[in-house]
Amino acid sequence: MARIGILPLGRPTFDVPFAEENLARMLAALEASGHEIVGPGELLFDAPAARIAVEALKAEKPEQILILQVTFTDASITVEIANGFDVPLSIWAIPEPRVGERLRLNSFCGLNLAGHALGLNGRAFSYLYATPDSEDIGAAIDELLVGRRVSEPVPMVRFEPGTGAGAGAVAALRGARIGRIGAPPEGFDTCLYDPAKLKALANVSVEEMNLDTLFSGAKAVSDEEAAGVRAAAAAIAGNLDDVDQGELDRSLRLKAAIEEIKARGRFDAFAIRCWPETFTEYGGAVCGPVSMMGEARVPCACEADVYGALTTLLLQRISDAPAFLADLVDLDEEDDTGVVWHCGQAPMSMADPDTRIDATIHTNRKMPLLFEFPLKPGRVTFFRISQARGETFAVIGGGEMLKRPMAFTGTSGVVRFDSGSKTVLERVMGAALEHHMALVYGDHRDALAEAAGALGIPVLTL
Predict the structure, then answer these.
(1) Boundaries of each L-fucose isomerase C-terminal domain copy (predicted)?
(2) Euclidean distance between CA atoms 146 and 76, whole angstroms
């Protein structure tokens, strides 16, 4: 048996009591494994606490490091941990029930960000996504710690450029302009980009602005303009009176400000730093405005994800339909489904017609405007222009969005991937992909493969 050094990571904006319950179950499963477990038995909520724990753990001379990804966190401290130990590294993340409530942990997304950052840094790691009290958890932990769940690169294929819709969409994409408003949050390596590489790839340029450009623009919006945006939002969700009216007004003004920036700069898409400053400094969510802009065929990628904006713009043009940049937040091998989700900014044409679109608040930050609904059933295509492991390639997948109750608050959908949830997990973690994927309704895989050929990049089939 090995001496395993554990580091339990969490973030206080999630459900801390629930996280502590799950950590206790994880620790019990580890104790039952027979390995010697050393390290803190409580959640580490910030970088200073994690650094203190890392230094203390070094004195224990662990033979392996196991990060317990109890809630979502960014990847910055994970990279520090990886650099601090020259021993095998593993990450264990946990599912949470799909009961139509908030994402209380969002553990899988934390695993996703961590895997991508480690891949960029060339650091080998193993991973486990499993409930701590599942029947086979003992065997799964053993497999994890003996290196049988290692993240390994996934084979790719190349396609010819062709002369069809995909190649035409790439030709039309060249010369497009993306406005980046604010920088990605710390530890979101998934959202970083190199302007020169982007220009060489697709002849797409980016103009960077600070968040104050958006905030000052919103504050300058006239009452008449704001009333027009409110009328448009009321046509989508009839319960606008149910949320804080001052915060709602500030949120709606963000849409008018984005439209003004678009017109002034002739932008085709945006990558916007959506948190925390829109809440902490400005006082209203940009999610609802992003939903409305997406429906109007102006993609706005969250977390200042420039390649996410590029991805969504190309997918939108190939499909001639609004596209949704979403997080993959759960994979259930037994049910053979996954859940795609974001706070509340999917284009409203993606809503299940048998349900109501509601105006709501951000689950962590408690401010409007977000639109809440389950995604409608139907054929869907997934796409991402990825920079995982330092290489540029296209990720293309297909699946069927199922008619299921809303898995988590915000905008979410339960999907059955063509390749199966087990394979999707292996490919997402093996390739160390970004946490954002764009989706659109219909089957557009052939055109996207042709587009990848026109861009001169290989394809990973999701």
Answers:
(1) 376-460
(2) 26
Residues 185 and 271: their CA atoms lie apart, in Å, by 12
Same domain for 84 and 141, yes or no, is yes
Strand order in the sheet with 64-69: 36-38, 3-9, 64-69, 89-93, 126-129
Judge if 16 and 57 occupy the same domain: yes
Q: How confident is the model at residue 162 (pLDDT cuts 50, 70, 90)?
A: confident
Distance CA 27, CA 38 (A): 11
Q: Which domain holds residue 14?
A: 3-145
Residues 218-269: tens digit of each pLDDT:
999 999 999 999 999 999 999 999 999 999 999 999 999 999 999 999 999 9
The pTM assigned to this predicted structure is: 0.96
Q: What is the CATH number of the domain that holds 320?
A: 3.20.14
C-alpha separations of 385 from 73, 98, 155, 175, 458 in Å: 23, 29, 16, 17, 10
Exposed/middle/buried for residue 10 (C-beta within 10 Å: 0-12, 13-18, 19+): buried
Q: Is the pLDDT of residue 100 over 90?
A: yes
Say if residue 142's pLDDT is above 90.
yes
Domain count for the chain: 2
- Eight-state DSSP code of residue 321: S
Helix axes 287-295, 223-236, angle to 10 degrees: 80
Quote the CA–CA distance of 81 and 109 in Å, as a whole number.
18
* CA separation for the pair 429, 119 (Å, rounded): 9
